[in-house]
Amino acid sequence: MKPFKDLLVRSLLLWASLGVLRPSGAVPKSEFFRFGERAGDNKLLNKDDFSTTEIRLQVPLIFYGQIYESLFVNINGFVSFLTEIPNFFNVQFPLEYPIIAPFYSDVDITRAGNIWYRETSDPRTVTRAKNELKKYFGVAEGFNPEGIFIVTWDGVGAFSQRADRLNTYQLILATDGKESYAIFKYADGGIQWLQSDGKDPNMADARGQAGLISGDGRHLTLKGSGTDQVRSLDKWSNTGVPGLWVYRIGQIALDENVQEPDLVSEDKAEESCASSGSVCHSNAICKDYDRGFCCSCQDGYFGNGINCLKKEEPLRVTGKVSGTVNGMELKDADLHSYVLTVEGRTYTAISRMPSQIGYDIQSITVFGTGIAWLFAKAVGDVPNGFALTGAMFTRTAEVDFPQTGHHLFVHQRFKGLDVFNSVQVNTEITGSVPTVPLGSKIEMDAFNEEYTRVKPGQIRARSSRVFRLQGQTIDTPFTVETTIDFDECRWRPKSNDLNTVRLKVAENIFIQYDAPEQIVRYALSAKVAPLEETDPCVEGRQECGQNSQCVVDGDTFRCVCERGYEEVYDATLNEAICLDINECDTGRDNCHLDAICVNSPGSFACTCRHGFTGDGFTCTREASCEGVPCDPNAVCDLRGTVPRCTCRPGFTGDGFFCSKDQGGPSVDEQRDCIDNNICSPYADCLYDDAVRGFRCACFPGYSGDGETCTPDGQRESCGTARNCSPYGVCSKKNTGYVCECLPGFTGDGYTCDVSSSVTLPPLQPPYQPEDPYPPYHHTPDDSRLPYETPQEPYPQDPYQQPGHRRPRPPYQQPDDTYDTYQRPEEIPEYPLPEEQQPGEGQGSDSGWSEPQCLFGACWCPGTLQYNIIHNRCEPSSSQRSVGEIEARPLPSCFAGKCICTLGYAYDNLRHECRADHTPGYDYSIKGGGHRVRASCNEINTCHPNAQCVYQPSSKSYSCVCDVGYEGDGHSCSSKIDISCDKVNICHFNAQCVYDDAALQHVCVCQQGYQGDGLVCTPQDECSSIQDCDVNAQCLYESVSRRYKCQCNSGFEGDGRTCTPERAASCNIVNNCHNFADCIYDTYALRYRCQCRAGYEGDGTFCNPTQVGCNVVHNCGDNAECAYDLTASGYRCKCREGFSGDGFFCRSSRSCREDPSVCHPQASCQPDALSSFGVACKCLDGFTGDGYTCQEAPDHEKYLLLINQGLSVLRMPSDPRSGAGFPIHVEPFMTAVGADVDCLAGRYYWTDVRSSSIRSSKYDGRERKPVISGGNIGSPEDVAVDWVSGNVYWTDSENDVVAVASIKKGKIRTVVKGDLVNPRGIAVHPGRGLLFWSDWNREGAKIEVSGLDGSHRRKLVEKDIMLPNSLVIDYDLENLCWADAGTHKIECVNLDGNERRVVMTEARYPFGLTILGQDFYYTDWNDTKIHTVDRYSGFESGARDPPLGGSGKLYGIAAVPPSCPPVANVCGADGGNCPESHLCLPNGRGGRTCACTDDALENKEEGPCNDYNY
């Protein structure tokens, strides 16, 4: 018997080694750690939504490096630290608090199940935990746990009081006070339910999730968490034992995550349904094959077997779009798509799309096409994209516009279904597209696209399409090459019957850019069907050579090179071949600028350079702790904006000095605000030297302890101050904006209280209305609340609640900008059906439910949206009937009414077209039941190689194939094999020439014509108005039979360049002043400009009629009051020997002849720029122009001040003087523009996030807002006239240039009109000149005017693209600018002459400043400060910004050793202007006493007039 027994043992061992004896299930419940009443456990109350009170631990637990002396057991499958979380929040991991979750779901143990917990140091339990951990962790060899905390969820049911399916799992936490481990055990068959019915009847809960969350951003989720496969947690493992998961969770470095087991050998058993079939979806069937298995969705579902969806149920696609288009960077723009699977119709929207490229993006329909393919309506058994991939694939699309030379590359990664069964996708986009005029819409015809499976797991497609501007006939062609890579089950037998399928996109294509909402929308209807003809690639594959693939293209095929290869002609072989592309050398890689590209056959790899980290496609500079003097018992924390020292567990201190913690930490201890968001929304988290830590400090104008801040004095309107309570909302009343508390709270709206029985966690900043996204707006990370977005692009509920305005659905015809019938400002409310009147039922009939409070904010789960007016959750989707037809037409607007095409009637309630059952109309055919083909002169149905020709015999139009082709015109076969040297088949505008490549004679169109030589048509000079001058149109000329640029009436030129005719008057060229009218002169018989009553001038410039100086006696020194014949009144005039405007007179004599003309604190010195060769210059210690000098204050000098989003940084100009430091950091700030007041020693910057201009000392002290609220939109750049005491800025939202008095804060708009995107700004106080740049992509320019906005003119308008910052070179009297489009730094004289290039090859320059002999500029591409010699253009190197900021660098300003030697007429006594006015130099030696905007708008207090001197 012994030999037989040995043989049996050896056989069993062999079977085990081969994987035959595998555990059939999970951990038997008998192998759980002891639990229950007999084990001495405590028991959670049998109810719903419950947590324990704080449980003090005998031995502290270490979790992600933090020491916790207590925890909370929560009913819903997890333990938490810091706070209890009794309620179930329907969100996707990670949460914001540290938790450990074996199975996060909505548990209800009212009827079924128990939850047991205890802490123990029982030797047997401790020994068992120690031995289990030693099996899986090498570092656990010396681990001796002193405390074990065990929580068991035994047979727990789901909400609401479900007892039919039960889950059983256990959590064991082992700790010795210095290190900790976590063990998850899932009982055999222990996961029987994945989600509850949900507390909201309209939306089921998210699927169960399992993982460990640190609370600081780091987290780990178990395999299958949040997916349908989470039910297999009891079958899967990270230890090799099904249902057993272990992790080291204690001493985890700040840049690491929890540790997986390191002593587990990999299981290489043969794959089969029995061993690995758990990866299949619960609604899928697993089928074994010879070498493996495959999953297939069951009847009633569709997908790839891993992901299955119920047929005909609508769903969503969400994601982010990043990249660069037309030089404009996109960063995490939101993509949303709503899909009606029953119809195959998709509504895709991309929000937060800047207006600079929003109209251009309309042509990128590949955004919508990819989703349309994914969920196209299937004809027969043809699979759509989801059936093949389960929405887990990568998609690359190359879009080429051959006519314009633009090229675009789109890369998308579809990541499958999330916890709410929505598809997740990330999109990267790079390249350029044709420019679409602002306000224009585009049209696109129906098209087909053939998808060919070229090899296992790869599909390719190619299509040719066109788009045109709405209302025009000029087509812009483009081609799309698509490649899709996915994981295909390699064991399933393949059939060649469906290697190619055809995607048919119907004609009801909707494309729109909504400029106010900054949303691009695409709506497509698509179906996927088999080819009607034989697959051309069946035979075509034989003709494709090495490294090429056969792709169906219409009714033929093309051999295309595999990805990573390109087609070249081999003269030796006399044929085209595919060779490897060196993406690295040709610049076709998408590696990051700080990455190294390595080429490989058919591909390439990206690796971040030394000192950078990332995946090679995105690289960020590694933060460094080098030089940070942390205590030996501290670690350097790199998670914040600057390195920070943190004492190790068991020690206390500020990180620079750490001492042994005698008492040990407690969760009740208050940590500083750098770790916890405890500050009031009206406070900063600042470092306090007194306590050697970070503390909250209230903003100026508020008082309190920082955690609670209340306004000082009279309260400012919440419409500008945004100062409502976090539990309040700013509402517009008749008396203005006021704060009101949300339902359930009481107070005045600025302070809202809740009942003491409710405990709320720390809050996020409050929502405030009318706060549009500025260009530099940074939205919070909404990944944990995937459906709660600031704007839902396609609301599916057609009923709007009263007062709740929502975006228009895409299937509603949008307002046309030029439509005579304009909608009123307020959108009329949709009527509510009787069963859904406000205030009625809250059940499933109405679709409404109560909002939940999550971390202090009201939110709604899933697809529901929060209605802040009614404080409730409302559905955002309306399901369509399964029986509805496949594709309904979109309604159109005619005579101010919505109409539909034949066979359909407009539904006023649903705002869409519905079938009206017209007799004889066949609704099974898209477009109607008329199977007769329309005439080709109405709808071009001809083949691309055919023409629509009138046939006199039949008195109708028909399609006729071109010369060299044969067929019926709708289908034309290949060329007839006839050589033009034998038979003259060439067009009369073509000639027959010998082609060396083709080795035969071919027809070639003559110059000025285009075509294949058989048919030549005149080559258009223009394809759109973008090709012509701004004062020209692209029109068809019948003589030349082509489109040509033609100048508008009143202009002359060739159409490419148009200038006003010499005789053009103001009725053609509007050159009249704002206070003048263009009138017809009956004597001169022409139009001219004439100043209005109360103004005087020539009409091109008008001043208010002045009160004579004989009345007001306001002449300056060295001036006299005399009668002026031209002005017909008394005016101030400088005396002989002096020059000026009569109010400010300067000696016209040389200081060499008369030294007394200089100020007493100035001397006469040589000056090459002066006409006299000498000039007055202030002595050392004084500042001014030499004629007026004042004592110069002593400020810091030779500094650079830089904006980096939420940080303002300072650094010395000399690198040897140190690295610098942040002078201000504010989480919700976006600092952009920069300038200095050299006289007052202050730094000014714009904050586009709060629409304000701020100022502080150079070291960050005395920080205060200078201008905020009011009508400021998005302040881009700032410039300070330190002489007059005014600050100027550009506003890209209101498209104006404005000025304000620094002392008074009074605002005046000085430039408006003819501005598209004003950006950079600079002032020359001595000349009284104002300069600004305009990012108008149709015509960028730099303009100049007086500092009062008068005498406006263009300074630079040629060879300029994206002019960013402007700066004055006072030594050379130049204006200089950085252009991110031309990648240059250039300068020009102040009169626009002698333009010169300082440097080229700047990557993306943004900020620019001058100090000494150098330019300093910031660059968006490498986030560095560059130094360039002003004269030679030589770049001496780049420097990293100081630690303390993150993201792109914006504006930069230099602190000079002294102010430039200038002065102006407003420098002394405010130019003698009234107190109510601003003194603004006019650029011609005079000044304007200007009214403020408020005074001009407030007519009740009487008119306000400007005074010009």
Structure characterization notes:
- Strand 54 and strand 55 form a beta hairpin.
- 5% of the residues lie in helices and 39% in strands.
- It is mostly beta strands.
- It is built from eleven helices and 108 strands.
- The chain has an eleven-stranded mixed β-barrel with strand order 18-19-20-31-29-26-27-28-22-23-24. Strands 1, 6, 7, 8, 9, 10 and 13 form a seven-stranded antiparallel β-sheet that branches.
Radius of gyration: 37 Å
Structural class, from helix and strand content? mainly beta
List segments where confidence is low: pLDDT < 50 over at least 5 consecutive residues: 1-24, 664-671, 755-846, 876-887, 919-932
The percentage of residues in β strands lies in 35-45%
Largest sheet: 11 strands, mixed, barrel
The helix fraction, in percent, is under 10%
Query: How many strands appear in the DSSP assignment?
Result: 108
The backbone outline, from C-alpha atoms, is globular
Q: End-to-end span in angstroms?
A: 123 Å
What is the averaged pLDDT score? 78
Specify the number of helices. 11
Placed side by side, the strands forming the largest sheet appear as 18-19-20-31-29-26-27-28-22-23-24
